[in-house]
Amino acid sequence: MFGGKTLKRTWKSFSDFFEKYALILHIPLAMLLVLVNESLSRHSLIEGFGFITNHTGAFLYNSFIIYVILLLVFLSPRRLFMRIVMMAIVILFGIINCIILNNRVTPFGFTDLAMIGDLLTMQNTKYFTAQQAGISLIAILIFVFLMVMLHMHSKKKTVQTKLWVRILVCAIGFASLFPVTKACQAAGVVQTYFGNLAQGYLDNGYAYGFAMSVVGRGMNEPSGYSEKAVDDIIKDTEKGDSTLGSVKPNIIVVLLESCFDIDEYPALSYNEDPIPYFHELEKKYSTGHLTVPVVGAGTCNTEFEILTGMSCKFFGPGEYPQKTVLKKRDCESTADVIKKLGYGTHVVHNNGGNFYSRANAFSQMGFDTFTSKELLDITDYTPLNTWPTDDILVGATKDALDSTNTPDFCYTITVGTHGDYPTEKVIENPKIKVKVKGVDQGRQNQWEYYCNMLNNMDRFLKEYTDMLEKRGEPTLLICFGDHLPTMGLQNSDVKQKDIYQTKYITWNNFGMKKQDQDLTAYQLVSEYFDRLGIHGGTMVDYNQTMTERGVSGKSQKYLKNLQMLQYDLLYGDRYAYHGVDMYPASDLVMGINPVVIDNVYYYDNRLHIYGENFTPWSKVFVNGEKVNTTYESGQVLSISAKDVTDGSYLVVNQMGSNNTVFRSSNEYELKLPNTDE
Fold first, then answer.
1. Of the ranges 11-25, 51-65, 363-377, 480-494, which one carries the lowest mean pLDDT score?
2. Does residue 135 sit in helix, strand or coil?
């Protein structure tokens, strides 16, 4: 048996040996770390070894990335401590990716770090509960504490090699990353573009995928980019003036969250059609398949393509342009184009206004108004109490349309069918009962829940079109699925053999001809503008012209010039505008209906504030300071009487995440009742 002293001597001998040959021994260590992370990505050690055998070149390249990172160890006199820290960070990212892949198809990338603020706004959802937030915080604190303790108790070692030599070795290692990466990309060992982000990470390795999400953001300048090249494209594709007649229909675009026509999933059967109205619209009005840029998550990238006519293909893996380039630059959109024809432009959404930086993005895209959940009196939620039901969007859209004396362009975003879908049975007596071949009971439960939420969506669609019909104005409705649900579907599972295809459907009340057509997300709105005779805008005209010519939206011929124009508008010199910002950001107004304080009453040591258009996100401010506010109803809020004095000024603010004030009420001066006898 080994005593404590023997073990200590053995460990010291091993440690000394490892440090002596660390430059070499870091190679198998890097390989081991890659194996761990790839196994975590695949939730299987066997599949992790499969990555080594099936993608040997990518495995070696990912090991090289980790090896270079481990070179930082040699800069510290506490090498053991630094090695443990570096290993822990690498594995931590793998664990985070593993957890995220349990909730969505899209792997963890650098852009997700920018989404932390948004993630925190999703508390009490299946994606991120308050309990999970607490556990995450505790885990981070424990990790930091352990690292501090390890650092305090770790010993400095005399390093024989001079510091400048160690710095030089590190510098050479990191400098070599660029040429080695370029060589591997040229040789096809790793890819530069991931058509399927999730599959891209699996084929190319997590380390490389994450690194690409860090350095591969934005757009590279296309070959041949110049003022003449841009002018030539515009002259070749410009459509001239709009030919829209005197009757200008409202145009409403509705994003149906995670909407998937389950008839295209042969393994699934059901007791009754979950989406009968959807299928009825499909038979009567124009429809088709829609190629979208994401699967399982990443709604805002489909949204970006729909609203701008641009493609996310040209951005780095996992990038959300609404949270990157649109933070600092306005962006031509379909809203901008149609505003020039006298249309009002609106967005309606039953989730947070700051999520995906939407309030900022919609301003950059030129919209007039944005009604987010903070401006809606939401009280009804899905069975898991995670997402608001979509029925509230019917009235909210009507309010937006009624707010102008002009025709309107309205973009409505639903959330009722949003994941995560429960593996346990939640609905006691579901209307829609399903059977799915080849899956376990947990997945069966997920599909059953999802199909019943689809059924709710279908009823919402009927209520929505009934409202539009009742208003009596000529209206075109375009509805589309932003991506498939997070159910682990593969290409082989669906009829189209492409999990990047959803469906779009339409409705109209002015006799628009049925003309089915498969499109990409960046073609959709431009195509229907064209059918109505609406032209104008760099991207709209380009998409219309190329589609008219029968050029496939996925072809290199189509994409080459699309990339040139897109780069020019988002990152380049805007040659298309000839020095004039044609589509500046708008002064976006949050909400349609004013928030009003009418009266206040005292009762039971509380001040009850009566008014209009209060929501669960209404907060009372007393003399400019926020106080504890209880939401009673859409007409009543209450605060403690201790928070006010005679002459206090009250304002109700509609609050978004990060203490954003989206809208404010009138200022109300408080006059306390005279209690003297």
1. 11-25
2. helix
Averaged pLDDT, 388-406: 97
11 in a domain, yes or no? no
Of 457, 435, 437, residue with least CA distance to 445: 435
Give backbone dihedrals phi and psi of 624, rounded to 5 degrees, phi first: 85, -5
Nearest 5 degrees, angle CA 649-CA 653-CA 659?
Answer: 120
CATH number for 641: 2.60.40.10
Range of the domain at 636: 594-669
Give how many domains the chain has, as a whole number.
3
Are both 432 and 521 inside the same structural domain? yes
How far apart (Å, rounded) are the C-alpha atoms in residues 175 and 54?
Answer: 28
The label of the residue with tokens 């929501």 reads: 615
Beta-bridge mates of residue 413: 255, 349
Let me know if residue 8 belongs to a domain: no
The partner residues of 668 in beta bridges, in order of sequence, read 650
Which CATH number do you get for residue 308?
Answer: 3.40.720.10
Token duo for residue 598: 């009418």
Give the model's confidence band at 97: pLDDT under 50 very low, under 70 low, under 90 confident, else very high. Answer: confident
Q: Pull the structure tokens for residue 445.
A: 């439960």
Which residue(s) pair with 540 in the sheet? none
Lowest-confidence pick of 5-9, 75-79, 363-367:
5-9
Residue ending a domain, among 545, 569, 589, is 589
Q: Which burial class, exposed, middle or buried, applies to 65 when counting CB atoms under 10 A from its CB (0-12, 13-18, 19+)?
A: buried
